[in-house]
């Protein structure tokens, strides 16, 4: 790839890349995010490539791993034309162009609609096929690609209505996808596709039209707040780093994302890595940094793979390295893999981990903006925050502040999971209500169950209930309610969820992930977990509720870092919202949701029992007795609550008494 040495050259590359995409009569974008790959989308991609190679009616443009080098020469259809728009200045044709239909088969990032994966999008018509299987590929190629026919059984249907176009599906129609705009729409492994969408134009603008101070002012004016959970003002953070006397500075991207059920940053790194990289480049220019680090958890191998490819391509095009776009600005980017410690999402623990030390937070001040990585001033933002920056530079702070509430402008990506019909990755303007997210975009509660609560902000967040459904999803509104946006995880729960068990689960997670450095977090969370375990086992006392409140207040007031300070939130929020469930567990030894194993009371319906004795034979505690062809009974004193009888009864005569 030839280096892009000026803004004019970037414009020419963009024009060629757009023309190449527009010249393709059909583009097949196979979701190659982690979720769809797990569902078999890799096999779908391979099968479609095989079908395309064997089809003489069309010329084929494959994905980069096929379209480049010897592999391309062996597999491209006769007469097809391929262009690498960053190679030599003119586009570098590799074969003679002919007037015939052309098909581009590409791997994209996550489309977001995880519930319906694997997903296949067909452009230019915007058709979205859902729950595609490898055996569907031949029909897709022959009917839709060659003959323009829809395959109705693969289209999304809701309330009896069929949706052919992706943008018309309620899940997508009610979103505002800005950060996620390219995810699912471009080849995630090809820099030219990002450039075709206007990629790196914001970088060109700051390098050739703006001073570093003007960049900081623009981001400050936009009031971009950190999307990692704290909501700290990004522009102010950058200004603090830029004002330090120390001239060696760093830019660090937090891609650790350790919250259970959260995958917003992962999807950006997998589906649109250059947008985040461009944001980091702009930050580096603004604060005078020459080196940057992306800290990614090792459990994200695909994100790491695509980031490495993106960095290599950007270096080859001259968009990373020295003298970027013919200027004196240079920036080098490195990737560090985390070992899975949740605490390394905290800034000082993260930088310590990059330095090769044990990931543990330190006492502040000094803060990261003063003494961060290697003791130098450091800008530390998460993936989604950096991905917002190019849009702010391109379209201006005024445009950005026109989205969402004044004090929390812009959009926010959420991972919508749990007992909701449409799980997946969504993006909505700040200020959108929970009701809109869960019932409009999410389609309501799965199996039409009753909504009970939503856990927001991951293990450090709190529970919101039905009366909170119209709360504005922004930093300040949620803080007033004792909750937080966090990184953006939303776990929806129905009436079959035990809230005491939910509190125990999240406390177990935070206690296990505590680095152990400070006593309040190390010992306090352990004591809280022990109390919660007693309660769900049926051994709780009324006094335990006071003990939990006292411990929660002590931990949140004295813990060293954000992990400890927010660890009690799930417990306190569930105690306030569902006090009756705690009392039932302690006083009545009863779990209304039938979740807590030790409180399950198995009973046999004599009307349904046929006296086959299968339940008695499967009981390891000999707690079931009776005579053949007569109803059997369970001795609750002997029953160990294992549930073996429930699974072995062929007549559905055994149930859990709630």
Automatic annotation (TrEMBL):
Belongs to the complex I 51 kDa subunit family. InterPro entries: 4Fe4S_Fe-S-bd, 4Fe4S_Fe_S_CS, NADH-UbQ_OxRdtase_51kDa_CS, Nuo51_FMN-bd, Nuo51_FMN-bd_sf, Nuop51_4Fe4S-bd, Nuop51_4Fe4S-bd_sf, Thioredoxin-like_sf. The keyword Iron-sulfur applies. One of its GO terms (molecular function) is FMN binding. This is NADH-quinone oxidoreductase subunit F. Keywords: 4Fe-4S, Iron, Iron-sulfur, Metal-binding. It comes from Hespellia stercorisuis DSM 15480. It comes from the Bacteria. Residues 600-629, 630-658 form the 4Fe-4S ferredoxin-type domain. PANTHER family: NADH-QUINONE OXIDOREDUCTASE SUBUNIT F (PTHR43578:SF3).
């Amino acid at each position: 790839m030839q280096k892009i040495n000026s803004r004019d050259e970037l414009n020419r590359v963009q024009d060629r890349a757009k023309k190449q995409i527009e010249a393709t009569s059909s583009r097949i974008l196979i979701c190659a995010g982690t979720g769809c790959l797990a569902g078999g989308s890799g096999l779908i991609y391979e099968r479609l490539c095989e079908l395309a190679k064997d089809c003489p009616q069309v010329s084929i443009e494959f994905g980069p791993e096929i379209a480049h080098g010897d592999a391309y020469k062996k597999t491209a259809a006769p007469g097809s034309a391929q262009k690498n728009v960053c190679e030599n200045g003119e586009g570098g044709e590799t074969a003679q162009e002919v007037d015939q239909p052309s098909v581009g088969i590409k791997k994209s990032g996550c489309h977001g609609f995880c519930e319906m994966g694997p997903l296949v999008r067909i452009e230019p018509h915007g058709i979205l096929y859902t729950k595609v299987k490898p055996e569907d590929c031949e029909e897709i190629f022959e009917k839709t690609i060659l003959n323009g026919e829809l395959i109705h059984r693969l289209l999304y249907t809701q309330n009896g209505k069929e949706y052919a176009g992706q943008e018309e599906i309620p899940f997508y129609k009610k979103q505002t996808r800005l950060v996620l705009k390219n995810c699912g729409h471009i080849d995630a492994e090809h820099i030219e596709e990002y450039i075709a969408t206007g990629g790196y134009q914001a970088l060109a603008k700051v390098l050739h039209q703006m001073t570093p101070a003007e960049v900081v002012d623009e981001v400050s004016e936009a009031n971009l707040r950190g999307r990692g959970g704290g909501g700290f003002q990004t522009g102010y953070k950058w200004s603090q780093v830029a004002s330090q006397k120390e001239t060696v500075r760093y830019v660090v991207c937090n891609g650790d994302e350790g919250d259970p059920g959260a995958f917003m940053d992962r999807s950006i790194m997998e589906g649109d890595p250059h947008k985040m990289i461009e944001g980091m480049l702009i930050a580096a220019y603004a604060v005078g940094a020459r080196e940057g680090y992306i800290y990614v958890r090792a459990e994200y191998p695909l994100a790491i793979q695509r980031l490495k490819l993106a960095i290599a391509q950007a270096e080859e095009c001259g968009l990373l390295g020295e003298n970027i776009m013919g200027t004196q600005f240079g920036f080098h980017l490195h990737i560090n893999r985390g070992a899975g410690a949740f605490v390394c999402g905290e800034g000082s623990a993260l930088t310590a981990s990059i330095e090769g030390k044990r990931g543990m937070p330190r006492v502040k001040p000094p803060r990261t903006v003063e003494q961060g990585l290697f003791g130098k001033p450091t800008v530390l933002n998460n993936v989604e925050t950096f991905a917002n920056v190019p849009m702010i530079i391109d379209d201006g702070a005024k445009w950005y502040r026109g989205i969402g509430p004044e004090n929390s402008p812009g959009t926010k990506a959420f991972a919508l999971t749990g007992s909701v019909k449409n799980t997946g990755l969504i993006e909505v303007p700040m200020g959108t209500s929970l009701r809109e997210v869960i019932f409009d975009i999410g389609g309501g509660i799965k199996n039409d169950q009753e909504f009970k609560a939503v856990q927001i902000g991951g293990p450090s967040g709190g529970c919101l209930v039905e009366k909170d459904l119209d709360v504005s999803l922004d930093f300040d509104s949620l803080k007033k309610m004792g909750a937080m946006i966090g990184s953006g995880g939303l776990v929806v729960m129905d009436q079959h969820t035990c809230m005491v068990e939910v509190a125990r689960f999240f406390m177990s997670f935070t206690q296990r992930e505590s680095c152990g450095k400070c006593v309040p977090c190390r010992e306090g969370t352990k004591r809280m977990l022990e109390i919660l375990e007693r309660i769900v086992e049926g051994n709780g006392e009324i006094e335990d509720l006071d003990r939990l409140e006292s411990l929660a207040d002590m931990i949140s007031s004295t813990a060293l870092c954000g992990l400890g300070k927010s660890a009690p939130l799930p417990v306190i929020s569930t105690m306030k919202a569902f006090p009756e469930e705690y009392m039932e567990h302690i006083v009545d030894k009863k779990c209304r949701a039938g979740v807590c194993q030790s409180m399950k009371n198995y009973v046999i319906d004599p009307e349904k029992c046929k006296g086959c004795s299968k339940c008695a034979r499967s009981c390891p505690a000999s707690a079931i007795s009776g005579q053949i062809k007569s109803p059997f009974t369970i001795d609750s004193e002997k029953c160990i609550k294992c549930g073996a009888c429930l699974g072995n009864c062929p007549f559905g005569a055994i149930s859990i008494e709630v």
